[in-house]
Each structure stands twice: as structure tokens, then as C-alpha cells.
Amino acid sequence: MTPQRHSGTLGEKENQGTMPKHVAIILDGNRRWAKKNGLKIAERQKIKVMFIGKRENIPASLRDAILEVEEATKSYEGKHLIIALDYSGRFDILQTCKSLAEKAKNGLIQAEEIDEKLMENELMTKCSEFPIPDLLIRTGGEQRISNFFLWQSAYTKLYFPTVLWPEFGKADYLEALTWYQQRERRFSRRFGLRV
């Protein structure tokens, strides 16, 4: 897919239709971009930051830094950034099944009580108010989700721009939102829903 760039602002997009509450992004293309341009450092402001993934595989010094960032930003509201570090969708589902099996074994739940809601409450993304993404963007042109949010993306709209992540700017994000809104409008018309 070759996206067409749209001008406008986020506020204008909000007036044009349904906006995704949760946007997940697979940041692909960093190494390719770095070969050409070098790295840039971005600064985050008033964003609650949380990390998901296998923390036991991360060096202790990095785990300490992760805890510091989470602690320093835990009171922020409005924007929530979840960083997947050593994260695997298969591992997430597997650890969820093990956790539910352990709870059933200990009599905390009955096997017949296990449903989608219980599964979602055990996934690593339970830390977010919106654990299921409405839109998943993967930059860099690859058209696959590569073991990322396997359970969570069952009904997510997938968008695959060819632009590399470090070059993915405001115009590209607005194009993704336009694409999402067009898909939502088609879905709503098909099923007679109001947007």
C-alpha cells in the first residue's frame, strides 16, 4: 500500500469520524534508517510509560531504569505509552494460560469460568485502560504482525505504510487515521451502524 499524504490536524480528524482509542505501532525500519542518517533522541512529556515483556531476561541495570521510568510517570494521565521489550505474543498467551491453570488448580476460579474477559485480564496488556488496539501500524513495509499482540489484534485494523519508523511523521500518522476512519465508515454502512 502506498499511502497518500493528507494535510490537516488531529482536531480536524476527530471531527471527521471515529478515532481509535488505542493505536499500537510496530516500529520497523530503525536499522535501515540509521544506516543512512544516524540516530536522534526524542523527549517524552507527561506520558505514563509502562513496559511489558520478559523482564527476567533483561539485565538488572536496565530493569532498575525501567522501574524508575514507570514510577516517575505513574501519575500522568491522558497519554499512555506501553513499550514492549523482549515481548512475544505467543509467550503472552502461554503465560496467561499457565496463570489461569494455576488459579484453577488452587481453587481461585473454576475451569468453566475461563472466558475471553478472564484471558484479557491476565495478558500483559492488562496494564492499559484500552488493552485491545483499534489500529495497529507497522512501519517499514512488512505486512505481518511478527508475533506481536496475537490475542489482542484479532479484530484490530492493520495498516502497513512503507515509510521507515524514524521518518514516520505527523502527516503519516494523519494518513493512518484517515485510512482508519474510512474503514470504520465502510464497516458502519455495511452493518447499518451510526458513527
UniProtKB/TrEMBL annotation:
Give the UniProt keywords, A-Z.
Transferase
Entry-linked SUPFAM superfamilies: Undecaprenyl diphosphate synthase (SSF64005)
Which co-factor is required?
Answer: Mg(2+)
Task: Please give the superkingdom of this protein's source.
Answer: Eukaryota
Matching entries from Gene3D superfamilies are given as: Decaprenyl diphosphate synthase-like
Q: Which pathway does the database say it acts in?
A: Protein modification; protein glycosylation
Query: Entry's Pfam families?
Result: Prenyltransf
Instruction: Write the signal peptide boundaries.
Output: none
E.C. designation(s): 2.5.1.-
The similarity comment for this entry is: Belongs to the UPP synthase family.
- Function statement: Catalyzes cis-prenyl chain elongation to produce the polyprenyl backbone of dolichol, a glycosyl carrier-lipid required for the biosynthesis of several classes of glycoprotein.
Its name, as the record gives it, is Alkyl transferase
User: What species is given as this protein's source?
Assistant: Brassica cretica (Mustard)
